[in-house]
Design brief:
transcription regulation; 15 strands; RNA binding; 38% helix; TF_NusA_N; alpha+beta; DNA-binding transcription factor activity; transcription termination
Length: 411
């Protein structure tokens, strides 16, 4: 039997990822049955046998032997005179079984069959990849960076499947080059033009949750539950946790001895600050914990409008707000309350150490101001812009920005 690239093709099909051998064999059988139907009008009297080990193919056709002149369907029956030339021992009523060779289909039909096989198996493989990853949405996947473009990065998993990580799904501090190993969470799987498009993300809250499950056995075992995660990727994250076992401190378990567990997560997230807090149904206490590391003096809640007014000592206001407002914004997302912070009543005249503004003012600027004796907010505000320009190496625009930050503290 002439293989005409058929056996070579089968070897290729066996190597296709995500498709088991019985499925490939069934595809092969269907393709050849289609060829039989085109040639003979039916395949119901044909047997197609594919050897799963080496791809050898056998096709057998069975026809009933009829008396001469009584054959009504040449595809299912054969007359005695004709069959006697092929097998002298045949008699009327016998089943004549013959082997169909590939050559009988013609070279063009075989090449067409090969193309059909390739397209069908490719289609099957795409479907299998889609199903596989659709079921894995929310799981962490590790891959190798294959190509980096301006707006997205192509990552290959350990089976060579393509995963796309758009720039918008990367942590701002992420920098990848070809060959780098990268971890991300599968966030979305779609079929686009009959091809699976798998989107992975490093900014999704689920990514942080999976990292905690990897690093903290108590979470993986269900002893500690992550109630909610909110993130400003690359900047700060807040994780509310709860333990169903009174003997387990959920925060301590997540942080680990001397921060051993959380350090690995922080490194993976490019030094993103992670606040782990105890979840509670007491909203006042929950907001207080959510605004950590700031220490709150008092809280007024309006449950109807989901609004919280938080009062703090002057030196705690900047801590509550955080650099770029991230701390208060995340606390609001975590608790579901809109939070406003106020300096504690009766302390409007209290001065604030210049170091308390380190989240909003660069340290080298603070050092310049301290060098001329301005170590508190009011000592800076007591001087004019011109005088500060003369006495420091700071630009006028920088000084105006500093004054604006300091004045907002007392408004």
């Amino acid at each position: 039997m002439s293989n005409i690239n058929l056996i070579d093709s089968f070897q290729e099909f066996k190597e296709f990822k995500n498709i088991d051998r019985p499925t490939v064999i069934s595809v092969l059988e269907e393709v050849f049955r289609s060829m039989l139907r085109k040639k003979y009008g039916t395949d119901e009297n044909c047997d197609v046998i594919v050897n799963p080990d080496n791809g050898d193919l056998e096709i057998w056709r069975t026809r009933k032997v009829m008396e001469d002149g009584f054959s009504e369907d040449d595809d299912l029956e054969i007359e005695l005179a004709e069959v006697k030339q092929l097998d002298p021992d045949m008699e009327v009523g016998d089943d004549y079984i013959e082997q169909i060779t590939l050559e009988s289909f013609g070279r063009r039909a075989i090449l067409a069959a090969r193309q059909t096989l390739v397209s069908k198996v490719l289609e099957l493989e795409k479907d299998e990849i889609f199903k596989k990853y659709k079921d894995r949405v929310g799981e962490i996947v590790t891959g190798e960076v294959y190509q980096v473009w301006k707006k997205e990065t192509l990552v290959l998993d350990d089976e060579g499947n393509e995963l796309m990580m758009p720039k918008t799904e990367q942590i701002p501090a992420d920098y990848f080059k070809k060959g780098d190993s990268v971890r991300a969470v599968i966030s979305k799987v779609d079929m686009v033009n009959a091809t699976p498009k798998i989107i992975i993300s490093r900014i999704a809250p689920e990514f942080l949750q999976r990292l905690f499950e990897i690093e903290v056995p108590e979470i993986f075992d269900g002893l500690i539950t992550i109630k909610k995660i909110v993130r400003e990727p690359g900047e700060r994250a807040k994780v509310a946790v709860e333990s169903y076992d009174d003997r387990i401190d959920p925060v301590g378990a997540c942080v680990g001895m001397k921060g051993s567990r959380i350090h690995g997560i922080v490194r993976e997230l490019k030094n993103e600050n992670i606040d782990v807090i105890n979840f509670t149904n007491n909203i006042s206490l929950y907001i207080q914990r959510a605004l950590s590391p700031a220490k709150i003096t008092s809280i007024k809640l309006d449950d109807a409008t989901k609004h919280a007014s938080v009062y703090l000592k002057p030196d705690q206001v900047s801590l509550a707000i955080g650099r770029g407002g991230h701390n208060i914004k995340l606390a609001g997302k975590l608790t579901g309350y809109e939070i406003d912070v106020y300096r504690e009543a009766g302390e409007e005249d209290e001065d604030v150490d210049i170091e308390e503004f380190s989240d909003e003012i660069d340290s080298w600027i603070i050092d310049e101001l301290k060098a001329i004796g301005c170590d508190t907010a009011k000592s800076v505000l007591a001087l004019s812009v011109d005088e500060l320009v003369k006495r420091t190496d700071l630009e006028e625009e920088t000084i105006k920005e500093v004054i604006s930050i300091l004045q907002s503290e007392f408004e």
